[in-house]
Amino acid sequence: QKAHYAARRISALPGFSLSYSAPFFHEFVTDCPVSPDRLMAALEMEDILGGLPLHDGRILWCVTELNTCAEIDRLVSLLQEMEDQV
């Protein structure tokens, strides 16, 4: 449930659309409107372990039941801030 919550929240942001429509469990891939490496560095500065940057500019995200909705909401907020800076 948490991965699907995160996927809905992240993919609602401009430029972060889901790459695949197939069912998933803990992992999903999104497009990324900014440099994925730059984004991961910014998240790391906020003590957030982000997703895995893929070679084509997309990001593989992994969310489990150990992630809280508050943590996901904070991630989404930071992603929105990064997107607004571009």
Low-confidence stretches: none
**Rg over C-alpha atoms, rounded to the nearest angstrom:** 12 Å
Secondary structure class reads alpha+beta
Task: Report the β-strand fraction as a percent range.
Answer: 5-15%
The gross shape turns out to be globular
Strand order of the largest sheet: 1-3-2
What letter string, H or E per element, gives the SSE order?
HEHEEH
Main sheet?
3 strands, antiparallel
Count helical runs.
3
Mean pLDDT: 93
Instruction: Calculate the terminal CA-CA distance, rounded to whole Å.
Output: 31 Å
**Approximately how much helix is present in the residues?**
40-55%
Q: Would you count the extended β strands for me?
A: 3
Description:
The chain is α+β, with helices and mostly antiparallel strands and 86 residues long. Helix content is 43%, strand content 12%. Strands 1-3-2 form a three-stranded antiparallel β-sheet, covered by helices on one side. α1 runs parallel beside α3.
Topology (SSEs and partners):
Layout: H1 2-11, E1 27-30, H2 36-45, E2 52-53, E3 59-62, H3 69-85
Antiparallel strand pairs: 1-3, 2-3
